[in-house]
Design a protein that fits this description.
about 260 residues, Rossmann fold, alpha/beta, 6-stranded mixed sheet, 7 helices, 4-stranded antiparallel sheet
Length: about 260
């Protein structure tokens, strides 16, 4: 698969934040309110979060605690009520809407809970959409998307419409669409919720192999404890706040391997 231009974005460093070069995501004091007056709902209540490059962070917690709201703000699809949000060194709050659209297009992959597939397009065409938007020729875009779909076990479903796919198959197409342009930040909202254990493992292995790189980061919202083994860190949310962050199994294994190598 061929990556997009490394520069990735037309956004200018109106936004570049000094001292954050090791962080893919930096969130400070972020709040989000919906509604007004007596009917206001406080979805986020002063969230602080750092996600270094090269990390896969899992965000866990009960339904309604603010996980999806937080990752939507980080991905630039939702505006915070207050606070600072820096992604890949750029301040999303300071960006104009036009710059933010281009920034998301070039740098962010998002796997939604609702698959959001286009009903008139085949699986391969749906997965190719980010490349087509970026200006790739159709044949090359569909070929690259087909490669990702094949890796996800959908090589025999390339020409199928969404209505001809199961829920789990549609979810894998949505994941392929998020991965195909090799985004520097990948945000996944329950990516394995409709998958059985084997396909969930295959999906997380693909996400880890493609998206967890020294200049990239991954945030996964999940209730699926079967995939915790892929986490570098696990952040637990409750009532619009991050209550704790624990070292995940993957980082523990990496640290153990490094220690073992150093003792040889």
């Amino acid at each position: 698969m061929t990556a997009l231009d490394p520069a990735r974005t037309a956004a200018t460093p109106e936004a570049a934040l000094a001292g954050d070069r090791d962080l893919a995501v930096r969130v400070r004091g972020v709040t989000k309110e919906f509604g007004t007056g007596d009917s206001v709902t406080r979805a986020l209540r002063g969230v602080d979060l750092d996600v270094p490059y090269g990390e896969l962070l899992m965000l866990v917690g009960p339904s309604g605690c603010g996980k999806t709201t937080l990752v939507s703000i980080i991905a630039g699809t939702l505006e915070p009520t207050a606070g600072e949000v820096a992604v890949l060194g750029f301040d999303l709050v300071a960006m104009s809407n036009g710059r933010k659209v281009r920034f998301r297009r070039d740098n962010v992959g998002f796997v939604y809970q609702a698959y959001n597939l286009l009903p008139a397009l085949t699986a391969a065409e749906n997965a190719a959409v980010p490349l087509l938007i970026a200006g790739w020729r159709r044949a090359a875009a569909v070929e690259a998307a087909s490669d990702v779909l094949d890796t996800l076990g959908l090589g025999d479903k390339l020409a199928s419409l969404p209505s001809e796919l199961s829920g789990g198959q549609q979810q894998r197409v949505a994941i392929a669409r998020a991965l195909v342009h090799e985004p520097r930040l990948l945000v996944c909202d329950e990516p394995t919720s409709a998958l059985d254990a084997e396909n969930g493992r295959i999906t997380m292995e693909l996400i880890q192999r493609i998206a967890v790189q020294p200049d990239r980061a991954v945030i996964v919202v999940t209730h699926d404890s079967r995939v915790y083994a892929f986490a570098d860190r696990i952040a637990s949310m409750e009532d619009g706040r991050i209550e704790s962050i624990a070292v995940g199994p993957r980082q523990m294994r990496t640290s153990s391997d490094s220690a073992a190598s150093g003792s040889l």
